[in-house]
Amino acid sequence: MTRFIYFLLLFSFVAHAENVHVGDFGATADDQQDDSVAIQSALDSLAKGDTLIFAEGTYDVCTTLVLQHSEQITLRSFTQSKLKKCANFSGEYLLYVKPAQDFTLSSLHFQGLHNGHQVSTWGKQGVYIASATNVKIIGNEFSNFGDAALRVTSGPEADYFTTNTREVMIASNRFSQCRQVTTTQAQTNSYVGGVNDIVVLDNEFESCTLKLSTRAPAQTANVLFNTFRDINKTAFEVSYYSDLWVAHNRFMNIDGFVMNLYPNSQAPRQIPWDNIMFEKNFIHNTRFGLRLNSLGREQLRPVHALTVRDNRFEQVHFAEETNWRDIVRTYSYSDHASFDGVHISGNEYELAPDSDFLYIDPLSRNVYIDNNTALPSQPGS
Fold first, then answer.
1. Which domain holds residue 333?
2. Is the distance from CB of 349 to CB of 315 less than 8 angstroms?
3. pLDDT at residue 31 in the model
4. How many domains does the chain divide into?
5. Is residue 5 part of a domain?
6. pLDDT of residue 3
7. 209 within 8 A of 235, measured Cβ to Cβ
8. For residue 213, how far is the Cα from the chain centroid?
9. Residue 313 within any structural domain of the chain
10. Which residues belong to any copy of the Rhamnogalacturonase A/B/Epimerase-like pectate lyase domain (predicted)?
11. Distance (Å, rounded) from C-alpha 13 to C-alpha 31?
């Protein structure tokens, strides 16, 4: 399936005005010399519709590469050439893109200097894309970033409490040894959104968390057919995204929550969010299941339409935890409301000793629970 998706999406952006090669500007792969100036010159030369091509090999990047005010630009290789941070890298991001319209990143490998899965190293980041429309990030690899391997978000200059990045496709990539892939705008005191209309499709998250979070209203996020594995914290965090569809994913060997849903404490006020669906996912060998936190303190409006259905939970073991021993658990910090319209149905689950499948907080309303089936416990589980 991965190859089919990759070539189908690739076909949609191969026709561009001109191919530009970084080698023509003096960038030489595998020579262990700083290629930053040459690659930046190539980026500065791009015109509307151009494709910048990286020949096979590794390029050493010692300062942040910047692409500004781009339109219909593609950065790609045909062999997943590597852009690697130098040991003495100066800057925060390896690649900084803002603003952008119709931007594509394909078949490149971005490598940092820090294993963010072992130790979070804030500010040591990979690719930043902001204030963008129609973004495709397809068939790349991102590894060894202490913070965000990929941050796609609204720019901090956006109007207060708005979202100015939309139509983002992140497909058939591999993320490893990083702290996160995120939509959060991390600038202090910046109250803007993440991304409207984002699709996260057929990626591999190995030792790297996916975090869809926003500080302003954001709508439509589809997280489909991904694999999350070998993560020593929560696999998937989500905050304040309405119309969220999480389906057909595999979560394996997760030493934290499978999905942690929560209101973003950095938002300046409550953001209405509704329509959250988690269905047809496979979960195996995880510390916890789903932590579904609806509201913060003093928030009044309930979250409408929460659905958890047709999932299979195997070996959710809870380790030494004594409090969170429910595979699916809702709760609210508010004294006034929680979820309104909860559907939990068709799930299969194994129970660890002294655990339960489901806890619904007393403030949730209109709850429907049906046809959830306990599986025989496996030896050693």
1. 19-374
2. no
3. 95
4. 1
5. no
6. 46
7. yes
8. 9
9. yes
10. 21-249
11. 31
| Averaged confidence pLDDT in the chain | 92
pLDDT digits (tens, 9 = 90+) for 47-68: 999 999 999 999 999 999 999 9
361 Cβ contact list (under 8 Å, min separation 6): 294, 330, 331, 332, 338, 339
Instruction: Tell me the two tokens of residue 55.
Output: 């020949």
Bridge partners of residue 217, in order along the sequence: none
- Where on the phi/psi map is residue 80: left (φ > 0), alpha (ψ -120 to 50), or beta? left
In a domain, 7, yes or no: no
- Asked if pLDDT for residue 378 goes beyond 80, the answer is no
CA–CA distance, 307 with 356 (Å, rounded to integer): 18
Question: Which pLDDT value is given to residue 36?
Answer: 98
Q: Which residue, 57, 15, 13, 53, is CA-closest to 33?
A: 57
**How far apart are the C-alpha atoms of 369 and 358, rounded to whole Å?**
10
127, pLDDT greater than 70: yes
**Strand residues in 202-281 grouped as ranges (E):** 204-206, 209-224, 227-231, 236-247, 250-254, 259-261, 276-279
Residue 14: what pLDDT? 47
Nearest-5° Cα angle at 145, 140 to 147:
115
Radius of gyration (Cα) for the chain, nearest Å?
Answer: 21
> For residue 143, which of 118, 168, 165 has the smallest C-alpha distance?
118
For residues 141-168, average pLDDT: 92
CATH number at residue 249: 2.160.20.10
Helix (H, G, I), strand (E, B) or coil at 125: coil
Question: For residue 355, which of 309, 308, 321 has the smallest C-alpha distance?
Answer: 321
The pLDDT confidence band at residue 161, using thresholds 50, 70 and 90, is confident
